[in-house]
Amino acid sequence: MKSKALALILLAAAMLMLAACQNGGNNTQTSGASGTPSNGNASESGSAGKDVELRFAWWGSEDRHTATLEAIKIFEDKNPGIRILPEYSGFDGYETKLQAQIAGNSVPDIFQSTSTINSRLGADNLLTLDGKVDTSGLDDAILAAQSIGGKTNGIYIGLYTEAYAYNKTLLDELGVAPPTSPYTWDDLAAKFKEVADKSGGKVYGAVDSSVAFDEFTYFGPAALDARDPFPNSIDAYTFTEDQIKAYYQYWADLRQAGAVAPPDLSATSDDSANSLLVTRRAAFVPIASSSFSRFQSQTKDQLEMIIMPQNGDNGRSVKPGASQILSVGAKTKHADAAAKFIDFFINDPDAAAVLKTTRGVLPTQAQRDAMLADPNLADEDKKNIAILGEAAKLEGNVTLPPPAGEQVLGWKGMIEKVGQEIAFDKISVEEGAKKLKEQAYASVSAQ
Amino acid sequence: MSERRAPLAAFKHLLLTALSLAMIYPVIWLFLGSFKANNEIFAITNLWPSQILWHNYADGWTAVPGYSFADFFMNSLTVSFLAVAGSIISCTVVAFPFARMHFPLKGLWFSLLLGTLMLPAQVLLIPRYVMFSDLGWVNSFLPLIVPSFLATNAFFVYLMIQFMRGIPRELDEAAIVDGCGPFRTLLLILVPNCKPVIYTVAIFSFLWSWDDYFEQLLYLNEVRKFTVPLALQMFVDNAAQIRWGALFAMSILSIVPPMLVFFFAQKHFVEGVATSGIK
Amino acid sequence: MIAFMQQIAIIKKKPTGNRSRQTVAAYLFLLPWLVGFFGYTCWPFIHSFYLSLTQSTLSETVFIGLDNYVNMFSDGRFLKSLEVTTKYVFLSVPLKLAMALFVAMLLYRSSFSMTVYRTLFYLPSLIGGSIAVAVMWRQIFGIDGLWNSLLALFGIPGKAWLGQPDYALYLLVLLVVWQFGSSMVIFLAGLKNVPADMYEAAMIDGAGAVKRFLRITLPLISPIILFNLILQTIGSFQVFTQGYVITKGGPMDETLFAVLYIYELAFKQQKMGYASAISWMLLVVIAVVTAVLFFTSKRWVYYENEIQRGR
After folding, report:
1. Do C287 and B118 touch (CB under 8 A)?
2. End-to-end CA distance of chain C, in Å?
3. What average pLDDT does the structure give for chain B?
């Protein structure tokens, strides 16, 4: 008995040591980024000169991973002294991990991000890329919106636009003509009512965008003639109480008319099992254009997209936003190599050829045209690119990440929560508008 | 079984069957979904797939470029097996003095032991990460395994304590009279009588390690070291198409090892030989 | 009888020299835990307590004393999260334990069919917090899901339950109770240690099934009941995954669990200091509830070998 137990203990200890030797001892991934200086030499790469090793982290799923790995290979072929170490994963927890890595001083050299994530990471932890990357092909206003603290520290690598996706098959069945651009928010409201009427109340026009799917940013310039910056600037909110009241009222009226889904349905409409678009309970749902293929793949109906409504007088709306950006860790030891890689990523046509639409639509018009010329392009991708081309031509505001706040609800949380309170009849539209304005304005911290 | 018990038994089976169906319906939904095409999975109409798409399993298996789920299963098995070994050994050893001995500061250590369970792991994430980063253990399995060898999961320690307290002291005393020191008493008397709880600890530590997404994400950077939960998350991107069928397929497969562990362990903690535990 | 008396004599006759030897032995056994505690747990705990006295982002940390603790009581969301969490604990723990014990009692015979049932009942726990569970749960309780179809059989109109502020929490309770398998396993292990000869003796004395359950089973597994009660309570106060993955705290914060709020504060709002303070407040709440459970347990928990001899 005793010897058996002893043997078990020894076996476990042996396995532990084995695992430690295999996986724990060498930290070739932490080249220059961990606290202890003796780790992470690139010397095992074997070539004559010392290779520069860059850790590159991104999130995504299979298509993006495959495409990115191919792009990396092309880059390495063109730049023999640089090796890229890929670290890819799913999205859940990606930001938390980044934050932990910043605290533990082991941030990857290059990482995929968004302006909202970067605003949480803080400008001190991002490398300034001014002048290091050729951004001539990118839109200056959109580029400026991706950076924190006034310096260029996020380069966008894909674009998307908000769009209303609709179920064309369903609309045809109901005898409702789809909207055509340019159109206004009032036109849209009329369409919603038409869908509800013609279906005898069985199909809603759309989800309620005061409860979820915040479209206030788009409503402002188009319906209320709001000018940049709206609804916030870099460090303050700029919307008025009347403006938010008009927004909430718009949806309240539609709810009254039965033209949009009730709040519980709208709140649970997600991008899969419960999407009102997929389950044919609503005809219109706002989406990010880059997720179009996801919705289409989940239904046998034909789906289409149209850009957000525009201002009836001057055609203004909102410019496209960046789907992802690339940033460089402030403490990287290879700033130039990292910048080179980003430059390759956004400018090199060979990169574009493999990356395609895995990160939203490619940033420059030239790349988009090159893609449209590809005969094998999937239908969904065609629609995606086409709608982005249309949105890119718009005159409009640029969306900025919400200003850093003292309050403990982000902007989206605040506007949706108050919207829900209104929709569930806990408070009136006037009270809600007042409450949101006070909350939002009070939330901006003094720093 | 005697005649008059038959209707009772039948009723019991009926109840159990109804309950189990309710319990596993969601799993059945998942299983059948793994054979469906994307545009059918969320269709309300039928539970049964219109065509059985076996290739969902093949697609899922190779979904992560450059690797297959075989790699991820191997990694998960290594980590989980070691976690189990660590938990069983360390928790048995640590529970013993709490259950059987008197020593100064016992109350204090016991309160602290339970106290370690009371702070949510989320706020301990970053300090622990910083610590492991300074040790150079990031991007390895060490942060996932070593803590289990140090009895850091108070759940298991307390479970063993409660069990040990239920074992009659006469057995210990008999062993001491025979000349056993504390270690041999533990090994020869307590451990054999703790078989049910040791198998329980094995099941749970395997399962919790197997399912642990966050810690594994945090400490593993290279995809070749990834475990099953991390690989599963890679099916879900916030914008692109999700291949639900493949995701469900791999989710179903990932249930198999913990289920097997449970299946084989369970005979050790149900009524078998009618004994009070005295050898 | 004589042997019994001899045993008593041995127990009573503890030589005092053994005291210090036992202490040394005890600490040797405790060593792994002490290393783990001081190395792995203690420092992060202390660090998080220090953070709770600061305002901390990734870029800088500023000491602000007890401000976080004072402010939290005027934070409506914090108070709401406490309310939500408490409701959840008081609902889910008793339900889960009752189900687990009931089913364990049904299933602790050893036979093939029982083996199958046990595995089936444990299956939900195996799926844990994976993405698949979230999708599944949202599907089943969605407007077009199975649950509404069932309700329709009884003429009850269906709703999008997870979007209903009044009902969303109960669905999450249901999810957790559905996963009672792990508690069941622990009860099974405990039931095995109940000596069968006690049941036989009781049956000979004419005790019925209910009486056997109340007088024999319950007292003898009371340490295990206590264990499950304490650990499920501690765990339930820290519920996170279900809220994070299925409802994200909504609708209208009706499923905003305390730890979900803490997570949001720490990682989405860059308020690590405040998040730490709330965590410590939660710890205090948990500790108080646990202490109460322990103290009241003295009245109903029996440890076999610590019962007076001669009963």
Report:
1. yes
2. 13
3. 85
- Say if C142 is an interface residue toward chain A (CB within 8 Å): yes
Task: Count CB neighbours of C114 within 10 A.
Answer: 17
Distance from CA of A100 to the nearest CA of B (A): 5
CB C267 within 8 A of CB A96: yes
Q: Residue C59: list chain A partners with CB under 8 A.
A: 122, 124-125
- Tell me the Cα Rg of chain B: 23
Model confidence over C224-273: pLDDT tens digits? 899 999 999 999 999 988 888 888 877 888 899 999 999 988 888 888 89
Q: Do A97 and B217 touch (CB under 8 A)?
A: yes
Taking the CA atoms of residue A422, residue A426, residue A429 and residue A431 in that order, the dihedral angle to the nearest 10 degrees is: -130
Which of A136-145, A174-183, A358-367, B241-250 bottoms out in mean pLDDT, i.e. has the lowest? A358-367
| A321 phi/psi in degrees, rounded to 5 | -110, 170
- How many Cβ atoms sit within 10 Å of the Cβ of residue A77? 9
Complex ipTM value: 0.84
Q: Judge whether B3 is closer than 8 Å to chain A, CB to CB.
A: no
Amino acid symbol at A403: P
- Check B124 against C45: CB less than 8 A apart: yes
By three-state DSSP, how is residue A314 classified? coil
In this complex, do A120 and C142 lie within 8 Å of one another by their Cβ atoms? no
CATH class of the domain at A52-159+322-372: alpha beta
Number of helices followed by number of strands (H, E) in chain C: 17, 2
Interchain proximity C250–A267, CB inside 8 Å: yes
Instruction: Tell me whether domains A52-159+322-372 and A162-319+396-443 share a fold.
Output: yes
**Domains of chain C by start residue, with CATH:** 1-46 (no CATH), 75-306 (1.10.3720.10)
Amino acid at C52: S
Interatomic CA distance for residues A114 and A147, integer angstroms: 9
Chains that touch C (3 or more CB pairs under 8 A): A, B
* pLDDT band at residue B238 using 50, 70 and 90 as cut-offs: low
A93: which DSSP letter? T
Q: How far apart are CA A160 and CA C301, in angstroms?
A: 62
Write the pLDDT tens digit of every residue in A244-292: 999 999 999 999 999 999 998 898 888 877 788 888 899 999 998 888 8
The per-residue pLDDT for range C116-140, each reduced to its tens digit, is 888 889 888 888 767 778 888 888 8
Number of H helices, E strands in chain A: 17, 11
Domain A162-319+396-443: CATH class, spelled out: alpha beta
Whether residue B240 and residue A88 make contact (CB cut-off 8 A), yes or no, is no
Q: Which domains does chain B have, with CATH numbers?
A: 65-234 (1.10.3720.10)
Which helix (H) or strand (E) covers residue B253, if one does?
helix B244-265
Residue-range domain boundaries for chain A: 52-159+322-372, 162-319+396-443
Q: What would the mean pLDDT of C145-168 be, rounded to a whole number?
A: 86
Q: Provide, as residue numbers in chain A, all residues whose Cβ is less than 8 Å from the Cβ of B150.
A: none
Residue for token pair 């048995």: B92
